[in-house]
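User: Show me sequence and structure for the first protein, then do the same for the second.

Assistant: Starting with the first protein.
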Amino acid sequence: MTQRFDSVAGVLAAVGLDLGVTEWMPLTQDRINRFADATDDHQWIHVDEARAAQGPFGGCIAHGYLTLSLASKFLPELVTYDRLKMGVNYGCERVRFPSPVRAGSRIRGHGEVVAAEEVKGGGAQVTVRITVEIEGGDKPACVVDTISRLYFE
């Protein structure tokens, strides 16, 4: 279930809150190939299925930055801000890629509010840790602390 906040006070009070998990989504070879085209990163471990099958991962794997970019898909599935005038991505901290994601795997996002503070202009800066989990995996694919600035009505 998506958590909802409608004020700076609500965001500040949410530190430590587990936001739950998203639905599982497949990370397909087609998505990996399209990401390779968009970023001009056609390294064989991502796009050459025959060669990758003989490589260290036993098949193609997603780009780390593709996995990271999916935080922007998972975040609004975990948390919604009502009465928001403006929200901006402020950055990321502590990005890690503990485990590769094989093409065809299913992944999901798990969220936790790890920090929040009031910022100049009457807004809040919130840090949400997104852990990208791999179905059946013992380590996450990606862990990133996303930082957003929020201004409410």
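Switching to the second protein now.
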Amino acid sequence: MTPDVEKARRENLRWIILLALNSAQPLGTSEAVVLSAIQPMLPDITPLELRRNLDYLEERNLITITGRNTQPHWFCKLDRFGIDIVEYTVPCDAGIARPVKYW
């Protein structure tokens, strides 16, 4: 059985996005800042790939996106449940590569 590299990449990217937005608490930040935070780990990430995964996280009620239809750049902020996921206070469903809590 071969590993699904693309699936692993998406799930890892979603976790990194949540961590980046957690660092921007309580205000949130623009997608450009999130992209620049991710590029050292995933240098080939595209703005479209980032937006697709931001959409996914918003659909799961983990983040809020503003400016989607009114601004050229999106602004993102963790929601309450997204904070709980990052802080390991609630279980994390499939689709996000959150590491196992070791402490």
